[in-house]
From TrEMBL:
EC code: 3.2.1.21
The UniProt record lists the keyword Transferase: no
One GO biological process term: cellulose catabolic process
InterPro entries per UniProt: Cellulose_deg_GH3, Fn3-like, GH, Glyco_hydro_3_AS, Glyco_hydro_3_C, Glyco_hydro_3_C_sf, Glyco_hydro_3_N, Glyco_hydro_3_N_sf
High-level lineage: Eukaryota, Fungi, Dikarya, Ascomycota, Pezizomycotina
Pathway where it operates: Glycan metabolism; cellulose degradation
Fibronectin type III-like domain: residues covered: 799-867
Stretch forming the signal peptide: 1-20
Protein name, as recorded: beta-glucosidase
Cited Gene3D superfamilies: Glycoside hydrolase family 3 C-terminal domain, Glycoside hydrolase, family 3, N-terminal domain, Immunoglobulins
GO molecular function ontology, one term from the record: beta-glucosidase activity
PROSITE patterns reported for this sequence: GLYCOSYL_HYDROL_F3
Entry keyword set: Carbohydrate metabolism, Glycoprotein, Glycosidase, Hydrolase, Polysaccharide degradation, Signal
Reactions it catalyzes: Hydrolysis of terminal, non-reducing beta-D-glucosyl residues with release of beta-D-glucose
Length: 878
């Protein structure tokens, strides 16, 4: 049956993806977003086939790892190679994902573990600030250090692959449930943040898994399944044109590849009506071809929908390995063994899958840094089952290794440095000596169920310091804002009281009347779609504050004319009802700060840290101002929801700018307790040569070792204890047709295989490719920009100086971010801002030549303090 499913899926690819589809990417245009209600050119988009799957060649920093990986793979049997690629099934072993082991060579099974902000499902770990929060520090050092410390914690727990960082979702719509796991809807900011994070994780000796590739921009319908009232609905299709793909969503993935990410997770959704984990165009052509990705592509959990076609389309590892959780069946495992034995999948493709996995292993030094897995995702108990789903192998499963080191200090500082001061009418910083401090809001206090009291953090109770779902980690503790503020105030013997029930109107009024300063904590949460919180199925239903936050602010400001609002949120929230109320004397956005939440905000409130964070998204006056939204209802019938990205590259500030919409707080905005002056822009032209498209041919696909073609060599060992629902590479019959359980077995294989998919001969290299991330000349420096930034206030401060570029064409955004630097400047002193402008920074994607080019439109560089405060400018003479 499985085999039939595979065959059908291959056939489907073959029949629907060839032909007219092949021209979609090159010819698509960006329809005017204001016409988005009209029939879209992207409707029912298709994705062209691209085969064969590129084999790794050890380019860039991968040379050494490639040689080692080849040496290792050359020693493996067919079964052992298969074992490296296929997960053992959901809850089959200790980690959220585990592949098979190679006992003969003393190679233990690889362990894949969430999350992008710490080790999920483990004790004695740190809960770091979320990606979307640290992004607001605009600080490369903060990103690297967080990556390194997260990597170290994974490493000490025995994890081989950390399932993060995230740049998909990028954040197309602010309601997107998992935006906070990633960094920012701006591709350049995201690209730099993801690169630093990857370097940090991998320098710690753990493989980073950059996810989710690609266009997983909403939670609703991300997977096929039954929807109440609608029946079965296919996974959503994010429909996109070639230019938008390259100029926006692919950009940070290119940076991740250039930074050397060892693995990339393909996403649940479809792209142009082809599932991302078996989309040959996206994996073979774009990721492994054009971007030259050398590591391995891992499926999201159950995002694989067919066996042979996913392998030929470039998938290298299936997670968690079973067709659906705990079916005991796999599209790979035994079926992959058979597919190689019968020639449906060429040996070089399996060799390439195994080589890519092992190369990532060697690249980050796993051969030197690996320790035994010493925790268990499925239980915090000391003793339990090694194979939790099967309840087999009782013994020591959790050694409670404390891996936190001194990370709490950096977490506190990172969150404080990421806090954005949005408004300050001389209310901040506080001294702690205020006569009467009043704290309001459930968001200031503990969750009555404990910081980890809701499964996968699927609730919004107490102070919000991370979202919900697989992008979370257990809190070792959670310092609440109330506790930290109380510590502060009590040092001076002042008075502090709180009301943390948002609906205790009488008590709120009574306390607010007495306060000399009121600190109001409000929040907005979101998370992964498999959990629904307060009616929000992952994606937010709206952009308003949760728990009646607006009413709370209104009730406090009605009685206290010195009200400071602190927002803990997953992204933009609507503040228009109160932000310019004169009784709101200060506003801070603190994001999702992690375990040290209270200490971090107290550091800012009481002036130990002068705020320097800036918004990494736009805060608009209404949700419609963003021009994009979530699809909440499926179409009638069983068709996949069609999510047409008609707005093209115009998301977030680019959309606001294009449509002349005034934001409340723009992208890049943030205040300080001091002030800065910008002057003296200077542009130096560098001498870069002309751009040369990559040409030539690859080598032929290497074949590593021999394998027996005798099915008798692949049978289940007779002395083996079979673990229930576990996925093995072995066959249960010497008759391949019986072993595959496929009634159509034996039909000519050509019928099922897309043209060229098994061809291991040298292939043309891609013009826009040629190195990790793309053509190396894209990173040639064309200009270096400098400016003078003076701190003209009275205290030291840090300023995130931003460089934007106008590409000048009628279809280009007004400006796009291209560089930034966070400068630390003493009062009365100045510092020099410096940033390079690369060829890539000035290029557009040309769909006809399938390459980057610099248009002849006049280009301008701006240096400023936000996307709307473009204080200095200069023409760029190319
Ligand atoms: C599904 C999520 O989409 C992915 O991000 C996560 O890594 C896996 N589950 C494993 O938990």
């Amino acid at each position: 049956m499985l085999w039939l499913a595979q065959a059908a899926a291959i056939l489907a690819i073959h029949l629907t993806k060839v032909g007219a589809a092949a021209t979609l990417y090159p010819n698509a245009t960006n329809p005017n977003p204001s016409n988005s209600t009209n029939a879209s050119e992207l409707n029912d988009a298709t994705s062209p086939p691209y085969y064969p799957s590129p084999w790794m060649d050890g380019s860039g920093q991968w040379a050494d790892a490639y040689t080692k990986a080849q040496d290792f793979v050359r020693q493996l049997t067919l079964l052992e190679k298969v074992n490296l690629t296929t997960g053992v099934g959901w809850e089959g072993e200790a980690c959220v994902g585990n592949v098979g082991s190679i006992p003969r060579l003393g190679f233990r099974a690889l362990c894949m573990q969430d999350s992008p902000l710490g080790v999920r499902f483990a004790d004695y770990v740190s809960a770091f600030p979320a990606g979307g929060t640290v992004a607001a520090s605009w600080d490369r050092g903060v990103w690297y250090q967080r990556g390194y410390q997260m990597g170290m914690e994974h490493r000490m727990k025995g994890v081989d692959v950390q399932l993060g960082p995230v740049v998909g979702p990028l954040g197309r719509s602010p309601e997107g449930g998992r935006n906070w796991e990633g960094f920012s809807p701006d591709p350049v900011l995201s690209g730099i943040a993801v690169s630093e994070t990857i370097r940090g994780i991998q320098d710690a000796g753990v493989i980073a898994c950059t996810k989710h590739y690609i266009l997983n921009e909403q939670e609703h319908f991300r997977q096929p399944g039954d929807v109440a009232g609608y029946g079965f609905v296919d996974g959503i299709s994010s429909n996109i044109d070639d230019k938008t793909l390259h100029e926006l969503y692919l950009w940070p993935f290119a940076d991740a590849v250039r930074a050397g990410t060892g693995s990339i997770m393909c996403s649940y959704n479809q792209v142009n009506n082809s599932y991302a984990c078996q989309n040959s165009y996206l994996i073979n052509y774009i990721l492994k071809g054009e971007l030259g990705f050398q590591g391995f592509v891992m499926s999201d959990w159950s995002a694989q929908h067919a066996g042979v076609s996913s392998s030929l389309a470039g998938l290298d590892m299936t997670m968690p390995g079973d067709t659906a959780f705990d079916t005991g069946l796999s599209f790979w495992g035994a079926n992959l063994t058979i597919a190689v034995l019968n020639g449906t999948i060429p040996e070089w493709r399996l060799d390439d899958m195994a080589t890519r996995i092992m190369a990532a292993y060697y690249l980050v030094g796993r051969d030197r840094t690996q320790v035994p897995v010493n925790f268990n995702s499925w239980s915090l108990d000391t003793y339990g089952y090694e194979h939790p789903y099967a309840s087999m192998g009782y013994g020591l499963i959790n050694q409670h290794v404390d891996v936190r080191a001194e990370h709490g200090t950096a977490i506190r500082s990172a969150a404080a440095r990421s806090t954005v001061l949005l408004k300050n009418n001389n209310a901040l910083p506080l001294s702690g000596k205020e006569k009467f401090t009043a704290v309001f809001g459930e968001d200031a206090d503990n969750n009555a169920y404990g910081p980890n009291g809701c499964s996968d953090h699927g609730c919004d109770d107490g102070t919000l310091a991370q979202g919900w779902g697989s992008g979370t980690a257990s809190f070792p503790y959670l310092v609440t804002p109330l506790a930290a503020i109380q510590n502060e105030v009590l040092q001076y013997g002042s008075i502090i009281q709180s009301v943390t029930n948002n609906w205790a109107y009488t008590q709120i009024e009574a306390l607010a009347k007495q306060a000399s300063v009121a600190l109001v904590f409000v929040n907005a949460d979101s998370g992964e779609g498999y959990i629904t919180v307060d009616g929000n199925e992952g994606d937010r239903n709206n952009l308003t504050l949760w728990k009646d936050g607006d009413a709370l602010i209104k009730n406090v400001t009605g009685y206290c004319n010195n009200t400071v609002v602190v927002i803990h949120s997953v992204g933009p929230v609507l503040v228009d009802a109160w932000y310019n109320n004169p009784n709101v004397t200060a506003i801070l956005w603190a994001g999702l700060p992690g375990e040290q939440s209270g200490n971090s905000i107290a550091d800012v409130l009481y002036g130990r840290v002068n705020p320097g964070g800036k918004l990494t998204f736009t805060m608009g006056a209404s949700r419609t101002d963003y021009g994009t939204d979530i699809i909440y209802k499926p179409p009638n019938g069983h068709a996949a929801p069609q999510d047409n990205f008609d707005e093209g590259v115009f998301i977030d500030y680019r959309y606001f700018d294009k449509n002349n919409i005034d934001p409340i707080y723009e992208f890049g905005f943030g205040l300080s307790y001091t002030t800065f002056a910008y002057s003296n822009i200077n542009v130096i032209k560098a001498s870069a040569g002309a751009y040369t498209p990559t040409t030539g041919m690859t080598l032929e696909a290497p074949v590593l070792g021999n394998y027996s073609t005798n099915p008798a060599d692949y049978q289940f060992p007779s002395n083996m204890t079979y673990v229930t629902a576990y996925i093995y590479p072995y066959l249960n019959s010497t008759d391949l047709s019986k072993a595959s359980e496929d009634s159509s077995y034996g039909l000519p294989t050509e019928k099922y295989i897309p043209a060229g998919a098994t061809d291991g001969s040298p292939q043309p290299r891609i013009a826009a490719g040629g190195g990790p991330g793309g053509n190396p000349e894209l990173w040639d420096v064309l200009f270096t920009v400098t400016a003078t930034i003076a701190n003209n206030g009275t205290i030291p401060g840090e300023e995130v100086v931003q460089m934007y570029v106008s590409l000048g064409g009628p279809d280009d955004p007004k400006v796009v971010l291209r560089g930034f630097e966070r400068l630390s400047i003493q009062a009365g002193s100045s510092a020099t801002f410096t940033a390079d402008i690369t060829r890539r920074d000035l290029s557009n994607w040309d769909t006809a030549t399938q390459n980057w080019f610099i248009s002849s439109y006049p280009k301008t560089v701006y240096v400023g303090s936000s996307s709307r405060k473009l204080l200095l400018s200069s023409a760029l003479n190319i």
